[in-house]
């Protein structure tokens, strides 16, 4: 099989898995934030009652979780495509 077949096979898988990664990352973030603040929700950047440190810490934690989940999902998808097509997607 050509290299483009592996890449083409990964495109739709990557899009679907990206949506799933976002949903999973959101669930994980909410659970992690409950450890930091059991009684409240994560602050919104425009929440007037929350300080800079809290807002930026929440954003950094959320970003790190999203990036890690997305990397794991992308890697898993690439491995799956290689198993199906014999080629690693680029």
UniProtKB/TrEMBL annotation:
Which InterPro entries does its entry note?
DUF4235 (IPR025329)
Q: Which regions span the lipid bilayer?
A: 12-32, 52-73
Keyword annotations from UniProtKB, A to Z: Membrane, Transmembrane, Transmembrane helix
Q: Which domain of life is it from?
A: Bacteria
The answer, when asked if Transmembrane helix is one of the entry's keywords, is yes
Pfam families for this protein:
DUF4235 (PF14019)
Name this polypeptide is given: DUF4235 domain-containing protein
């Amino acid at each position: 099989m050509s290299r483009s077949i592996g890449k083409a096979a990964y495109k739709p898988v990557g899009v679907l898995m990206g949506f799933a990664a976002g949903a999973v990352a959101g669930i994980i973030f909410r659970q992690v934030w409950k450890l930091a603040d059991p009684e409240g929700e994560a602050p919104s950047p425009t929440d007037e009652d929350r300080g800079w440190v809290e807002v930026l810490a929440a954003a950094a934690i959320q970003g790190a979780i999203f990036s890690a989940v997305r990397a794991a999902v992308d890697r898993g998808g690439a491995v799956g495509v290689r198993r199906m097509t014999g080629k690693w997607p680029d």
